[in-house]
Structures are given as C-alpha cells and as structure tokens.
Write a structure and sequence with these properties.
Distance between the termini: 150 Å
Number of strands: 16
Radius of gyration: 50 Å
Number of helices: 18
Strand order of the largest sheet: 6-5-9-8-7
Helix content: 55-70%
Structural class: alpha+beta
Length: 678
C-alpha cells in the first residue's frame, strides 16, 4: 500500500515543490561551502606570504642597517676605496632575490611549488625590476597611501596564484648614497648598472614595492577536499530529511489506523533522535572538557576576552607568568587591572586588531610578575575569533617569554661593540706605529744628511785652512821686499791686503758652514733675526748669481725658544726653494723676510715673487714626505723635514699660502720669556 502512495506522491506537484526547495537550499549551501573553502585557502596563503615577506624584509633591513654601515665605515677608514660596490653585500634587493632562489630550490626538493618574489619599480636600476603598467598603478596607490597592501587571485596555465604586494620602506639618508646623484654613487655600481635607472630619488620616497606570487595549489586542494566532504555530508543529511518528509507525507495520507501506526513509529524515531541529540550533547561537553584541559595545561600563557574587552578566561601558565589569580582578571577589563597608560596602549592595540580581524597582531612588551616582582620580555601573539554567526566575538592571545633571547641578543650586541672597539683601537695603534716609523725614517735621513754634510765640511775646512794660511803668509811676505818704485810698493801692499782679507773671509765662511750643520744639543733662547741673517750670509753668492734681491725687516724681530741650527736649516730650505724657482723661470727674484710678535708666539714671514705654489698642494700636501714643489727635479724631503723640525721638535707651526703672485711661508715659534722688541 505504501508503494502505491509513493508512486502517486513521486509525480505530484507537492513533491516537485519540496524537491525544488531542497535543491535550492543544497545549491546555496554548496556555493557557501565553496566560497568559505576558497576564502580559507586564500587567507592561509596570505598568512604564509606575510610571514615569508617578513623574513625578506628582515634580510633587506639587515643589509641596509648593518652591512651597508660597516662597508661605509671601512670606506671612511680607508680600508675600501670610495668607488667600492658589490651587490652581494650592499644590495638588499640582490640579497633578497638570491635568498628567494635558494628558498625555492629547497621547496622544490621537498616537492613544493616555488614562491616567486619581485621588486617592481618605475625607476629601476636593474631591468629585472621594471614594473608593468598595472604594477605602476599599484605603486602609485601605495605612494598616495590609498592602500597599504594589494591582494589578487590570478588564474594562469599553472593554476591559481595569489598575487600579494606591499610598499617598500621609504628612502632613508643611507639609501641616497646610491639612489640620488650618480656622481656621488659608488663607481663600481655605476659601472655595473649605468647611471640612468635608480637615481634622483629623494628621502622619504617609496621607490618600489615587494611583490610575491604564491601558488594556491596545495591550499585549494585542501579547500576542495573540505568542500567535497561538507557537500557530501550536506547531501546525505538533505536526502535523509527528504526521505523522512516523504515518509511523513505518505503516512499522513493513509487512513486513521495507518496514521496511528505511523505516529507510534514516529514517536520511536523521535526517541531515537532524542537519544542521538543527547549523545551529541555529551560529545560536545566532552570536547569542551578536552579543550579546557588542553588550554589549562599548555605551557604557553593564554588569555581570551570578548568584544567588549572583558577577560573570559586565562590558563595556569598565564597566572604563573603574571603572578596573579584568574579570579583577579576574569570578568574585568584591562582598565581594571593595569595602570592607565598601559591600559590605553592595550586598548588601542585591541581596537586596531578589531579593525583588521584577519591580520595577526604581534608586538613586544615588558611584563612584571605581581608576586616575585620579576620583569620579563614577552612577545604577544593576538588574533580575533568568531562566533557561530561568523561575527568577531573577541580576541585570543598567547604570550611568549623571550627574556633569554633578549639577554643573548644584548650579549651579542655588546660583543659586537667590544669587537668594533678592539678593531678600531688596533687600527689606530697600527696607524700610529706607521706614522712614528715614517717620522723616524725621515729623522734618520735628516740626521744622516746633516752628519754627512758636517763631516764633509769639516774635511774641507781642514784641507782649506792650510793652503789659505799659506797664501796669507806668502802674500804678507811681499811686505818684506824693497821695491824701488813707490807706486809699485803701494800697489803690492793693496793687493796683499785684498788677498789677506779674502783668505780670512774664506776661513770664516767655511767655519760658518761647519757650525751650521752641527745639530743643537738643547733648547736655547736665540734671536731669530741673527739666525736668518747667518743663513742669508751663506746665500750671498747664489743671490748675486740669480739676481735676487733679499730684504730683511729687522723692526719686529724677537727672541724664540728652540734649536737655532735646526731653525736655520728650515730657513735655508725655504730660501733655497725660492732661488731654484727664480733660476728655473729666469726671473729677477725678490725675497722679503718680516717678523711679527704676538702674545705667546712670534712669526717669521718669508714671501717671494716666484709665481706661487700649485693649488693642489695647498694647504698641507706640500709638507707630506716625497711630495716635491719642483716636480721630478726634487726629492720631496726638504719641506717635510722643515715641518718636522718646527712642529715636532720646536713646538711651533709652519704653513704656506699664495699671495701677490708668489709663495708665502709663515713659521711660528714660542717666544722667550720677557721678550723685548729689538
């Protein structure tokens, strides 16, 4: 009989309506499951991408802040030349791309699809980073701050891909060394990439974005599996409901006796359904108990609160970390249990999380244990959770203790600082040793030179004195000859007098030269005018040969403290350089020596009209060792020795400049006590 009713019902209008409703509901739920599974896949992929991009950002920041600063420091210290550039060290984009290639190789070894990253820019240095028109539009929206991230699902021949992009960090001053003017950029970098792309950027500009293409194959496969399972379960449930409804309708159409039997059977089914619901409720209670046990025994501090900010629960680890009982926090807001400034910060962070409910929130903070008073560094991980309707119901958070990590990090920073100081100290020590070594070598050259000159002039003096004495005696013997002619007698006496005077002058001159090259034993007070005059006396012949006029203004002369012979050598070096210039240029030279007296120092100013010093040697280069003002004709030692004598041995100062179409040398010396003007 039931078969008869079923056949009639199967082709009835009522059955058509029921089937239509069931099919429509099943279709809507299927679309809902499909959308939810796809949304879940994309959210999971997006979370993975963000975590991966954080690692890439960390690599870029490490290159920009640590590697670049160290290279620039080495450049400024002279260990690297100014044009140095190597992308493996100085390019954050290069390091990120190479890291991405290694990462994808490891993924492929594990059978995973690669995750590709790019650095699109409308002003790229490397053509690989040339942005498409679409990427330029996205980059412009980042610059206008219309968006802070861009997400798009792209369908390609390789399957669905998630395209995700974020703006790069705005340009800092460090960036402008390589991205502003090609004239100040490292030469090696310009040689490598050219001087067109990547330049003329400004501080604060967003010059590129970090984009990645993530394969959704695995996520979509899992989502499809969940979708199929959900759809199959829904279909079974709908089919069961449909069968039950059909049975109920068929039994309703029976006669009263059949209806009573159907009611009795229905009651039994209801009882069974009730038992099933009771079992389901018991299972839910068991799952809840399991969840609470897991939450309670997790070693990580956990808390959760509702949308109003009221704490709903914490676990045992949370109580231990904060030194507080859950009764003191559950049912309260952060404003009830924390200082106002700290509570305001937590509240702002929570509100930011509610505005972006799909983005996990991670930040560091210091927490204090209420019982022990211990302060720990912790890392908060917070995420929203939803109710059965899909609305955001509150926040769940985990607290990770990173105190030991921060301690080790601080130790590492201290070690790095200590190592840097040791390297700097050792570098300074070696530079000083090299400087002292060079000074000692130059001093040895000077002393050897003076000793050789002194020995040579002493030998000449010894050999000179005998013949000059003989000449003098021989000339004087002419006085004893009796000449008949008085005019001849007078002429002989005149000639003898000239010969005697000239031999005495020759002996006096060679003695002056011998004394000139004897190093002074100790500091003494001496008249700078007399010292300068003695030097000019030695130059009488050279001055006449070079047609040079030398004028010494005695008016402001003074007494100084130091080594007079060494001072004379300095004056000799300066005058000799001027005379060499006059002879080389075949000009009529003029040299003027003046003196000035200050409060504690006196100045000797020597000025000539020889055309001046080449500008590239001023102000200090001409005093460096082996740098000559005479080109290939000089040895570059004279002025360096002069500077060493004046500044290191006599506590003075020497410098040069160009003035009035000539060179001007100024020698400053400490004044003798109770100095009186001459």
């Amino acid at each position: 009989m039931l078969n008869i009713y079923f056949k009639k019902f199967l082709f009835s209008k009522e059955n058509g309506i029921i089937l239509t409703i069931f099919i429509a509901l099943f279709g809507l739920l299927t679309l809902y499951y499909l959308e939810q599974s796809r949304s879940s896949a994309i959210n999971n992929a997006q979370s993975n991408i963000k975590e991966y991009l954080r690692n890439i950002a960390a690599i870029r920041e490490n290159v920009s802040k640590n590697q670049k600063n160290e290279v620039y420091r080495l450049e400024n210290s002279g260990y690297l030349y100014k044009g140095y550039f190597m992308p493996h060290i100085l390019s954050s984009t290069y390091n990120s791309r190479e890291t991405n290639l290694i990462y994808n190789r490891l993924r492929e070894e594990d059978g995973l699809h690669p995750i590709m990253i790019s650095f699109p820019s409308d002003n790229p240095r490397n053509p690989l980073n040339e942005a498409t028109s679409k990427e330029i539009d996205i980059l412009e929206r980042f610059r206008k701050k219309e968006i802070n991230e861009y997400v798009e699902v792209i369908n390609s021949t390789n399957g669905s891909m998630l395209y995700y992009a974020i703006p790069s960090v705005p340009n800092s001053k460090n960036c402008l060394k390589c991205h502003s003017d090609p004239n100040i950029a490292p030469k090696d970098m310009v040689d490598m990439y050219g001087e067109k792309g990547g330049f003329y950027e400004r501080e604060g500009d967003i010059r590129a974005m970090l984009a990645t293409t993530y394969p959704l194959t695995n996520e979509l496969a899992l989502a499809n599996k969940e979708f199929i399972n959900s759809t199959a379960i829904t279909f079974v449930v709908f089919f069961i409901f449909y069968v039950l409804i059909v049975i109920m309708i068929l039994k309703h159409r029976k006669n009263q006796s059949i209806l009573e039997n159907l009611n009795r059977n229905l009651e039994k089914k209801i009882e069974r359904r009730t038992a099933d619901l009771k079992r389901s409720k018991d299972e839910l209670e068991n799952q809840k108990a399991l969840f609470e046990a897991l939450l309670e025994n997790l070693p990580v501090p956990i808390f959760y609160k509702d949308r109003s900010g009221i704490y709903q629960g914490v676990n045992r680890a949370f109580e231990a970390t904060y030194g507080i009982n859950r009764s003191e926090i559950v049912g309260y807001t952060v404003f009830d249990i924390a200082p106002k400034d700290l509570a305001n910060r937590y509240f702002i962070e929570d509100e930011e999380l509610f505005k972006n409910p799909n983005v996990a929130q991670i930040y560091e903070h210091l927490v204090k244990n209420k019982r022990s008073g211990d302060i720990k560094n912790v890392l908060f991980h917070k995420m929203t959770y939803r109710d059965s309707s899909g609305s955001v119901a509150g926040i769940v958070g985990a607290v990770t203790d990173i105190t030991e990590y921060k301690r080790l990090e601080n130790q590492l920073n201290e070690l790095n600082i200590s190592l840097g100081k040791r390297v700097e100290k050792e570098t300074s020590r070696r530079v000083q040793i090299e400087k002292e070594k060079r000074a000692n070598e130059l001093e040895l050259i000077r002393q050897s030179r003076l000793a050789f000159m002194g020995e040579m002039i002493s030998a000449i003096t010894h050999q000179w004195q005998q013949p000059t004495t003989a000449i003098s005696f021989s000339a004087q013997s002419l006085y004893d000859i009796d000449y008949e002619n008085e005019e001849i007698q007078n002429e002989v006496e005149r000639v003898v007098k000239v010969i005697v005077n000239q031999t005495e002058y020759m002996n006096e001159t060679i003695s002056d030269f011998r004394d000139f090259f004897k190093p002074s034993k100790k500091r003494v007070h001496f008249r700078v005018y007399d010292a300068c005059k003695e030097v000019t006396k030695l130059f009488e012949i050279q001055l006449r040969q070079s047609r040079t006029k030398l004028d010494i203004d005695k008016e402001e002369s003074f007494r100084a403290i130091g080594f007079p012979n060494e001072f004379k050598q300095v004056i000799l070096i300066i005058l000799n350089n001027s005379i060499d210039v006059f002879l080389e240029k075949e000009i009529k030279g003029e040299i003027k020596i003046e003196f000035e007296i200050g409060d504690e120092r006196g100045k000797v100013i020597i000025e000539d009209n020889g055309g001046g010093i080449r500008e590239e040697l001023l102000p200090d280069k001409l005093f460096e060792s082996y740098v000559s003002t005479k080109g290939t004709k000089g040895n570059g030692i004279g002025l360096h020795l002069a500077k060493t004598i004046i500044e290191e041995h006599m506590d003075g100062k020497i410098y040069a400049q160009n003035r009035n179409n000539g060179a001007l040398f100024c020698v400053e010396l400490p004044l003798a006590p109770k100095e009186q003007k001459d």
